[in-house]
Amino acid sequence: MISLPVVLAVAALLFGVGVYGVLGQTNTIMIIMGVELMLGAAMLNVVGFLRYSHPHATSGDFFVLVLMTLMALEGAVGFALVVSVFRSRRTSEADDLTELSG
Amino acid sequence: MSYFTPLAVVGLALAAAPGVWLLEQLVAGQRPAPGRALRDLRIMLGSPLQRPESCDSALFHLAPSLLVLASVVALATVPWAPGFRGIDLQAGALLFVAALAYVTPAMVMAGWGAGRPLAVLGGFRWVALMLAYAMPLAMVITSVAAPAGSLRPTDIVRVQHAVPMAVAQPLALALWLPAVTAVCFLPPFDLPQAGGELFGGVFAEYRGLDLALVALAQRVLLLAVSGMTAALFLAGWEWPLLPPAVWMGLKTAAVAWLLLWAGRRFPRVAVDRALSLAWRVANPLSMLAIVYAGLLTLLFYR
Amino acid sequence: MSDLATAIVFWPAVGLMLAAAVFVFITSSMARAGLLLLASLAIEGLVFLALGSRFLGFLQLLMMSGEMVIMVFFMVMFMPDPGGLMGMDMTHDKRRSATVAVAVTAALGLVAVLTDWPARVVGRGAPDVRAIGFEVMGRSMISFLFAGMTILLAMVGGVLLAKHGGRFGLPAAGDEQSGEHSPPEERS
Prior knowledge:
- The structure holds three protein chains of three kinds.
- Chain A has three helices and no strands.
- Chain A is mainly α.
- Chain B is an all-alpha fold.
- Helices cover 72% and strands 0% of the residues of chain B.
- Chain B starts with a helix and ends with a helix.
- Chain C is mostly helical.
- Chain C is globular.
- Chains in contact: A-C, B-C.
């Protein structure tokens, strides 16, 4: 049956997909999508721990609420950065933004 | 929840379409002609599906199904009578808003999948409109749930046995009605399909079964939001003399009639005007509605 | 929910979630990628439901629909090839990133499987919504306020960053110094 290690393993897989997206994609928006997947995996972890070790602790639910807020904020600030970069450079490719690399 | 409930909800959804269609005819002042409608429906179902010339045509054909799914789930959360309700959960009102939120991806999918500029424009208009109206919708639900101390729709109905919420919180009702009209893409807010401006917009390319599903979903959505309005604001089944389900049906029909009538009465709101109304007027007012609901709860509902 | 019902919802949902997440980075159409991400995270909401957290599941469904649709919007606006018709390659370091991803997954998975977690069954009776409300408005009030302030800061910062002319405002006419509005520079 479903147990805590199963949920954690699923979250690990989801996290791995997110890591691949962040490292392997060239476009800023695709990188943001990878970060969202990683945050989703973190949420799944928290829900797993919440349900399997402390089923009646409401502070865990609160923690997931904060994580969801974080996802929205990360998207908002990330998109604002993309807009501002696109205004001055006409590109949203991360590979073109290299002027700080030594 | 019994095994019978999902069947009953789907049956209600299928029965809703002719009922709402009848109401539309009556509001438009026409004589209902069931025979012609059946013939039209048969022709519609008989015509082949449109194949859009874009590589995302799967999205195009998935969108009506998502629309139907969202509307049926929204319908299932409406409490109809003490014994008959689809899904009665502690967070039922939240599920209602969550189901309505899935109309937005469906619109984007339909617009993008059609692969025509005007359809994409319609989809993006809808995203802008729904982002603006999502907050008032959620905040009105919150301010209505506060007196009941519960997000369960049946509890919200029960707390109104003395005073209907429409009397106690008229501001919340005034914010709610335009928002739900916009969710059903009904006339004053029919921006994504906008007959005259976008030549059918999002739904211009739909034929056959796809079109029938879109029409069904819109009518089920109208029934769901009317039923929820009756439950959240008009005390649902909680009035004397008549049996509960009859009261609920009458109130739902009245709300649906009001929404359809407003659609014929008022001209279409231009998209920039709708957005500025939503962000500058509806959002601040919905904050005010929450503060008011909190005061009301502390003073009278404890 | 009974164990059987939980399993019936859980396993297909998990499979679909992971498949959608993988296809996000495989598909060439950007609109499809955004909608697949929406599908993946919405199905994660179903997984929450299957694990018995109803409130969080519905909230996840609600939040993700709005957020991911905005994502689609931005992808279509800023991608050089939103429809995926030109066959552009949008990846770099494919092999190395795949290796890192597999290594991370394996490490996390090993930790998940090998650690001796306290053996408890899934709690019957989810914490009810009222209790979460009391948590947010009671014990966690300070953190909740802090989250609210963070949202406000992010809103102000986001608007400032994305404003026409950047955070320093539009340059005066004939002002050569600010490069914010110069025409696209030729990239080599």
